[in-house]
Amino acid sequence: MVIVVERKLRVYVDDRERASGVPQLLAKLGVAVLYRKLSVCDYVVPGGIGIERKTVVDLVKSVFDGRLLDQVRRMAETYEVPVLIIEGLEPIERYTSRANAIRGAIATAIVDFGLRLMRTVNERETACMIYSLARRGVSARSRGPIVLHKKPKLGDLRSWQLYVVQSLPHVGPKLAQRLLETFGTVERVFTASAAELSRVEGLGYERAINIVRILKTPYRPMVGREREFSNIEDFIERDE
Predict the structure, then answer these.
(1) Is the four-CA dihedral 230, 234, 238, 240 of positive or negative sign?
(2) Quick one: which of 237, 208, 210, 240 has its CA closest to 101?
(3) Stronger pLDDT, 52 or 148, i.e. the higher one
(4) Please, what are the domains in the chain?
(5) Per-residue pLDDT averaged across 167-193, rounded?
(6) Which of 51, 56, 57, 196 would bridge with 192, disulfide CB 3.0–4.6 Å?
(7) Among the listed ranges 21-30, 37-46, 59-68, 133-142, which one has the minimum average pLDDT value?
(8) Using CA atoms, how far apart are residues 37 and 172, in angstroms rounded to an integer?
């Protein structure tokens, strides 16, 4: 007689998602929730599936501060199936008068990076959707193992070089490798001009300018009222 013991579904969750309530709901569904510091995505499940969760407010903010397409690019370079879950069904127009800009960014993410987009009503439905994706991913495990990104071990020089270059905006694992192969060292990547960076396949001049600006602009600590900006109105336009 052969006894088959079914293993729990495993879902890796970024530490910053603890307060969302979704991981606790996943645990109630029988999922083994494993917290990690993830550099790409909020949830990672079997089958090469990386999941980013955003509320509608988060979505709007991430488009206007330039994070969304950078996140999606990294997801697409790291995971075979990049998924964005938008939690909440309120209209985008509730938070901005530039709703078409949000739709345009989403369209770019879908067409250029193969993003899968889902909308859920609340945290419970989000957890149920992640659970379903994890179950489907187990049956498609041949697509690849669960891939997590964390700081490499101290002696792993090559991994550290890739890790540091991947910290740049618009740069995922594949592009980091191309940059290092092109320039030879991390220092040369960081000191390259925008024109030099733009010649690397997959980067482009506009993104190269953003990288150079971040690397060469002197750091300015926040002072005064800047520290108090924490509401959605401080970041995006809002209809009155």
Answers:
(1) positive
(2) 237
(3) 52
(4) 10-143 (3.40.50.10130), 157-216 (1.10.150.20)
(5) 89
(6) 196
(7) 133-142
(8) 17
pLDDT at 228: 42
14: pLDDT strictly greater than 50: yes
State the average pLDDT for the chain: 83
Q: How far apart are CA 58 and CA 238, in angstroms?
A: 14
Write down the residue that tokens 């379903």 correspond to: 132
Max mean pLDDT among 24-33, 37-46, 231-240 falls in 24-33
- Does pLDDT of 30 surpass 80? yes
Q: Is the pLDDT of residue 204 over 70?
A: yes
Question: Residue 240: which residues within 8 A CB-CB, separation 6 or more?
Answer: none
